[in-house]
Amino acid sequence: MNCEVALILEHKYEQLQQMSDDAGNHVSQVFEKSQQYVKRFSRYKNPDAVRQVREILSRYQLAEFELCVLGNLCPETVEEAIAMVPSIKTKGRAHDDEAIEKMLNDLSLIKKFE
């Protein structure tokens, strides 16, 4: 998820700053742009919230791309979630509308109290 990448890049940036005593030694432009992008589009800023989001979505046995789409885009309704990730509603999966609704409610609580 974008919020996880933001935390990783922030940690890496801090490491680079500690290692670099030379003021002329800067991080690459690609690194800076990547960091700006994930910070801008991260729905969750607090590291504890990021961990909680990952834990909640992992409970639903989602594929990694499903987890990332839902974590990045934060749909508010079951219909939005299914439109963004149609595979969560496919046959043979234990995701009925009530389970998806509970998952979305859990995510919105984290966002609300962040």
Give an account of the 3D structure.
The model has no long low-confidence stretch (mean pLDDT 89). This protein starts with a helix and ends with a helix. The longest helix is centred in the N-terminal third of the chain and has 18 residues. It has six helices and no strands. It is mostly helical and 114 residues long.
Q: Features of this protein?
A:
6 helices, 114 residues, RNA polymerase Rpb4/RPC9 core domain-containing protein, mainly alpha, elongated, Rpb4-like
Summarize the structure.
One of its GO terms (biological process) is DNA-templated transcription initiation. The protein has 114 residues and is mainly alpha-helical. The protein is built from 6 helices and no strands.
List the helices and strands and how they pair.
Elements: H1 2-19, H2 29-41, H3 47-59, H4 64-73, H5 78-84, H6 97-113
Poorly predicted runs are: none
Number of strands: 0
Note the overall shape: elongated
Largest sheet: none
Q: Give the topology string: H per helix, E per strand.
A: HHHHHH
The end-to-end span amounts to 17 Å
* Percent in strands: under 5%
Report the total helices: 6
Helix/strand class: mainly alpha
Quick check: average pLDDT?
89
How helical, in percent, are the residues? 55-70%
* Structural Rg: 17 Å
